[in-house]
Design brief:
Layout (H helix, E strand, L loop, with lengths): L8 H11 L4 E7 L2 E6 H17 L7 E5 L4 H12 L3 E2 L8 H10 L2 E6 L2 H10 L8 E4 L13 E3 H14 L3 H8 L5 E6 L9 E5 H14 L7 E3 L7 H14 L2 E4 L6 H8 L3 E4 L1 H16 L3 H22 L6 H22 L6 E4 L6 H9 L4 E5 L9 E2 L12 E2 L4 E4 L4 E5 L6 E2 L3 H7 L6 E9 L5 E6 L4 E2 L5 E2 L1 H9 L4 E7 L6 E7 L1 H10 L7 H5 L2 H16 L7 E6 L19 H7 L1 H8 L4 E9 L5 E12 L2 H6 L1
Parallel strand pairs: 1-11, 3-4, 3-5, 5-6, 6-7, 10-11, 12-13, 13-14, 25-26
Antiparallel strand pairs: 1-2, 8-9, 9-19, 14-15, 15-16, 17-18, 18-20, 20-21, 22-23, 24-25, 26-28, 27-28
Helix pairs in contact: 1-2, 2-3, 2-6, 8-9, 12-13, 12-14
Amino acid sequence: MSAAEPLTLPGLLLRNARERGSRPAIREKDRGIWQTWTWREYHGHVRDFALGLAALGFRRGDKLSVIGDNRPRLYWGQIAAQALGGIAVPVYQDSIARELAYVLDHAEVSVIVAEDQEQVDKILSLKAALPALQHVVYDDPRGMTHYGADWLRSFADVQELGRRFGREHPDYFEAEIARGQPDDVVMISYTSGTTGNPKGAMLTHRNAIETARVFVQTEDVRPEDEWLCYLPMAWVGDSIYSTVLSLLVGFACNCPESPETVQRDLRELGPTIVLAPPRIWENMLTGVQVRAADATPLKRWVFERFRAAAERAETLRADAKPVPLGLRLARAVGEVLVYRPVRDQLGLARARWAYTGGAPLGPDTFCFFRAFGINLKQVYGSTEVSALVSIQPDHEANPVTVGRPCPGIEVKIADRGEVLIRSAGVFKGYFKAEQATREVIDPEGWFHTGDAGFLDPRGHLVIIDRAKDVGTLAGGTPFAPQFIENKLKFSRYIREAVAVGHERPFVAAMIAIDAGTVGSWAERRGLPYTSYMDLSQKAEARALIREEIARCNAALPEATRIRRFLLLTKDLDPDDAEITRTRKLRRGYIAEKYAAFIEGFYAEQDEVEVATTVTYEDGRQAVIQSRVRLESVDAEVAVRG
């Protein structure tokens, strides 16, 4: 690395303002209009806010949190804190009160930048439980007119305070940035908390920048690229791919108008790089299928014919087999009639790459997008390694692996199959948790991911499950619940699945249906229903899911096929502590909460009565009594698949 290259995130901002000052840096869609800020303007907003923080007493080592949807001022607030030597601590905007209270108190946050009145009200309800909190700053002033407190200010007011402070201390901002060191902690990203309270992973400037550099070495990222910022700001992937990569390369970030308009804004923007979790890709495919089913018979025939041709060609390419001339001609015609229009409808017409990560993507979904000319690839990482370990090469993408380890990132498999990582991106440690840090980083610097996996003959990494979750059935057969759950979730009718069977005679599954797709299925058949609970407990819905499980079973070894299942009366919900904000299962809590269901599977019961606790956004709880049918999957049907 050249000595002239910036070593900190604010240093990269100074460079961009100097060298790319007139280029677009960030956009926000507001009331249907895209507003653009250049790198020079981005720098000015960050500088004014940082100096405002300094005037309010914010100092090196202090923590600033942001809460809300993706907004330019929330990104600026984090960079401003980092310019003063502070630490950014983004939190999930849909967190309920107790989750927010834990993270904000544990991190000792002194300043919170909140998007709007809704988020300010959340913080107000917690203020007494946050002794370190000194200031709350809001972005959107709507509804805030009658709020009065000396510790509550608008973003614009803090910037005005900063401009006055800057006139009195003209070199303060640049001097504070110059004091920053590459090994200073720049952000604390809290993990999912699947087994208890979340842990705060401390990432340094070096962790973040070196990881971004590795990404740039692996993929051809350009200053002209466009990136859509819509994933939660508290997720480490947004911090690395939206903020750090943008600062390093200089491409523009784009904030949609609202979570509800993301698909429309995606199509309007046409980003060149897209990152989305499997559920979003599956929802996109479902939307395409629904539109095709509603089309005229001729259009539907054309779509299905050319879709089949594209998928046959993609299968041959994936197997390194030649594509016949007739199939190539069909693909050429399909590009004009079907593939390009679909890409345009999805907002992916300009995308050079599209990434999926966080969980496996179903092979049918994966094949569909690649067949339609979208360069969809899997990426793997975790909070503790700055969100990047491996990426699939363009011509080696498949739904089985998570790609080759990136340059400079070492991967090895421990004796018990655990994946170990060593790289410049490995985090500094967990905040206020030295023992937990020593448990995951060994003396040689290897980070123990907790994932079980292996490297295939081509050098691709394959992830099987969480190592601690891999068990055995009563007969000694290895049992990897996540592997089975992911196969179940390949079905568009299944939103979540929980497989059980450790030290039990067979595998059983608790299923949360996808209310949207199952609801549409029911409506097309004239099947009335009143609620999620009503729909999930209908005999027809159980029969539908039984068929989906049978298809899943056909691809599983006989000993690990699902023998019994039930449909939950509600979706798994992070507010109810059943899953994390990133939709990872909290298995211990689920096993305790649904113990009656699990025992019912193995006691051969046909029905179980259960009381389910539901948590509302304001923290109130309600108990719903219900009776749930426990179903068996016929072994012969399962084999026929």
